[in-house]
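Same chain as my last thread, 200 residues:
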Amino acid sequence: MLDADNVSSINAFNYLFSHLENLIVINFNYTSTIEKYIENAKCINIHGHLSDNIDDIIFGYNANSEETAKLRKMNDNNLLKNLKSYNYKNSDKYDLIKNILRDRHLTHEVWVIGHSCGYSDKVLLKEILEYPTVRTIRVFYHNNFSDLINKVVQIENITDDKIVTPKIKNKMETLLIPQANSDYDHLETIDRFLDLKFSS
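reply #2:
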């Protein structure tokens, strides 16, 4: 079994995040791996953490309002107990995210790193990405351009593409996700990315 606390950090990630301020990380993972890279961020483990009591970890399906309504009509609460929207009421994490997004004095840039943008988190992702205070979305990709396209298509499948697609930056304005086994120096690419990001 992989021990997340003993995973070595990736220098390129450390380098990237050390140049950023006012970070808020919404971690969909159950581990503390992200904390190896980001010391200057508020981290919200939306689904809980492996070290939490099992009752505090959120598993299940993120049903939209129509799907939830169909399940309610079956008049069996057991069908609803594994819906993430109900389990988010077990902590204040969902409310924290909504309060951050609601602050009209701030605008947000969302970086999608390592999330498939699939259906399991569709309701929360839709809410975040469509929020008016989110102005820019950068989708970091794995291996090649087709991974970026796949993630963009997934995002369009779970959101209103008329609202979200114009926010998504092109490949030249995002990054290949640094990997532990990378055999190249990613720092020059990160420098170019940061220069472009902060000059726009």
